[in-house]
Specification:
Two copies of one chain form a homodimer.
Chain A lengths: L8 E3 L2 E3 L6 E5 L7 H13 L4 E5 L3 H13 L4 E4 L4 H9 L4 E3 L2 H4 L2 H14 L3 E6 L28 H5 L5 H18 L5 E6 L3 H12 L7 E2 L7 H17 L5 E3 L6 H14 L8 E4 L10 H11 L8 E5 L5 H4 L5 E5 L3 E6 L2 E7 L3 H11 L8
Parallel strand pairs in A: 3-4, 3-10, 4-5, 5-6, 6-7, 7-8, 9-10, 11-12, 12-13
Antiparallel strand pairs in A: 1-2, 13-14, 14-15
């Protein structure tokens, strides 16, 4: 699993791409014009480890509000722009650290140039966000990416016979759109680019990223669009992002969920932790329980999970139902508990350390976790 | 994504492997000797679509209880056996449809032969369940799989120099264990085999399955062990199982969660649905909401998700925050709703069909879903 080599961009101090740890980001769900609510939401997300935050910019009032918001938060701010170049300009003036903007959406090349010129001046990157649901018509995709940057665009579009045929797939359409949008920025000598290629379908998303990964050096923002609620959406996102990340593709991730934004952050870290790409707080090893269990594993595991949500120790905690498999199954854990009849054994690094009554096992485990001396690192 | 070709086995009428749909299974969390609770749990799981159920068999009373349990349920029953061959024999006599048993655990070859002979007589398969946490010591792994089945075992173990060295990995150990266990059954001319290779670490699990996939023709039962609570465990399982399934590896899955077994089933189907490997009930497309949303998407999406949990219509439902992106983003959906200011638009297959007040949008959407005429198929 060697990581794809990308040309890093910087959102303030936050590096994305290159050798930077894969960052976890989200988007606010408040009305951006409501500065107080937006700032509160961002502050809460920071607590959960959010590293980049994006706000929708539907109008000029929102673009101006970003100035106050930016002052009150500690993580880089991205302005999400559609169609209107003046909202992009105002957002940059408000001090945002990045734009999410598809230049092809703006149409007028002079307006695109104005935005790019100001972004260059302020030294901020632009994310091109290609979404399956809002692709431009194939006929509208113009000159695509020049093989030699900044020169006249070479039309890399498939021949029209191919476009008309059924063999022109959603993946073709997404990748061609991305190349076209990238080409517009490159033709203006702008290369501080991040790219996303999101679809609801996992396979479409994966194939699009895989293909573009071979064609451009820019970092990728991974996501599955409209993926659903906390339950179904996190599973769909975990599969889509997980497959790409396991192949070394992806530099920053956003899990889109119809739920609290903090669920997006928690899920994002769970995905990265599952692949050992980040360590962030505790990792819980918990047996599913079965007819052999001597204690209520489910209850204990969920209590421990909840209690450790904001504990910033990078440790592996094991909650196991029976004494037989407990120590063996969790031998890699920093600390673990295995149920016995009416009692439980606490072990450290697979070695038995203490026997406690079933009634006090939760408190004892938490006590032992709090006593553990470990690095409090985020990366 | 072409599926790995495997030699199917049958658990009663339930085919696993070959061209059979990938099945979703679980394990009871009740005391198997408590027949009533166990049956109740299985009946509930059947409602959620569980296709195979396994029960722990810690003692003879549990083995005997399987007889009554089997009579009261509609899905194949698997007996989970460790160490004691007499529990395997009694479980077979109780009428189970499959054993989960590692012959290497039983040690005595005569006892293994007794079990295999009875399994053959009753025509039931055996799943070999290799778990990272309970691997036999490398030195204990004996003769491994014969290249020519049923002949004297050929020792395929890596040379001891390799075993002693650090280059002998967890994956080597898991795959060698599986080959050894398989070899024991094959040497008794038994080939109705299913295999699992579970670890907590996603990469260990994936690499073990990938490697064994090239060496044996038997169907795979996929799982990640001790994966955690409903939240973290479902993400870890989704990534591990998702990566393998996307490569065409896997014939039946079990998501191990420290939670209600029905969560395991729901998660299992969500994984398969995300990869379009099964259709089962509704698939929800829901936007994450942002500063552009005109309605409370999160609330509506979760209400819809809950309401549709047991609806057995294979449809895609979209819940979108704003009128601008709504129809576009969800154009593949069978039915969708997109928020506007104080109202919402219901659309079918991307075409606007009805405008409703915000206050009645949930009821209206459910009404439209109930009116939809679709196939009620499970596969």
């Amino acid at each position: 699993m060697s990581r794809r080599i990308t040309k890093p961009v910087y959102l303030g101090k936050q590096k994305v791409g290159g050798t930077a740890p894969i960052s976890v980001q989200s988007m606010t769900k408040t009305d951006t014009r409501d500065i107080k609510s937006t700032v509160n939401q961002i502050k809460e997300l920071e607590e959960y480890g959010c590293e980049i935050i994006r706000c929708a910019v539907p109008d000029m009032e929102a673009a101006k509000a970003l100035k106050e918001i930016k002052k009150s938060i500690n993580i880089p701010l991205v302005a999400d722009i559609h169609f209107h170049h003046e909202l992009a300009l105002e957002s940059i003036r408000s001090g945002v650290d990045c734009l999410r903007l598809n230049p092809g959406n703006i149409r007028d090349s002079q307006k695109v140039k104005e935005v790019v010129t100001l972004a260059k001046e302020r030294d901020i990157p632009i994310r091109i966000g290609v979404n399956f649901g809002s692709l431009p018509p194939v006929g509208q995709i113009g000159q695509t990416r020049s093989a030699s940057r900044g020169k006249d665009g070479v039309n890399l579009l498939p021949k029209s016979s191919k476009i008309d045929s059924n063999s022109y797939t959603a993946v073709d359409h997404m990748v061609d759109t991305a190349l076209w949008e990238i080409g517009i920025l490159e033709s203006l000598d702008f290369e501080q680019i991040k790219i996303s290629l999101k679809a609801f379908e996992v396979d479409t998303t994966i194939e699009a990223y895989r293909r573009l990964a071979k064609l451009v050096p820019y970092p990728f923002h991974l996501g599955i669009t409209e993926s659903g609620t906390a339950k179904s959406g996190s599973i769909r996102s975990a599969i889509g992002l997980g497959i790409l990340l396991y192949e070394g593709i992806g530099d920053t991730i956003r899990v889109s969920l119809s739920d609290d934004s903090k669920e997006e952050i928690i899920t994002g870290y769970e995905i990265l932790k599952s692949l050992n790409l980040r360590t962030k707080g505790t990792t819980l090893v918990a047996c599913p329980s079965c007819g052999r269990a001597d204690i209520n594993v489910t209850k204990l595991a969920n209590m421990v999970d909840e209690a450790l949500k904001l504990v910033d120790k990078n440790i592996k905690v094991a909650v196991m139902g029976c004494e037989v498999n407990g120590p063996g199954e969790a031998k890699d854990a920093d600390i673990g508990i295995a149920g016995g009849v009416g009692k439980a054994i606490i072990f450290k690094k697979g070695v038995k350390s203490r026997v406690v009554d079933e009634s006090e096992m939760f408190e004892a485990l938490i006590e032992e976790i709090n006593n553990l001396e470990v690095e409090e690192s985020n990366v």
